[in-house]
Amino acid sequence: MSDWHWEYDPDPRHVIGETPNLAFVALVEERADELVRAAAALYLDGAAYQGPSPGLGEEVLPNGMFQYLTVVRQRCLYVVQVTLWPL
Known about the structure:
2 helices; alpha+beta; four-stranded mixed sheet; 30% helix
């Protein structure tokens, strides 16, 4: 089993804010789960990884987007910004 995970950085309230659109937040979290599974498959050596950092990533979803940072040596994907587009 992979020990990869994702989290909001610095915390959910800061990143998500007080958005009333819980369906969009659920989409963000679902996509973060998928990205973690992909990172676990791509970076098998995890904490021993010595290559370049993947850097900041961006995912566009219906009604918004989010940015994330993959830190391979920590085996973590940090969701750093969630933007909900006005309807």
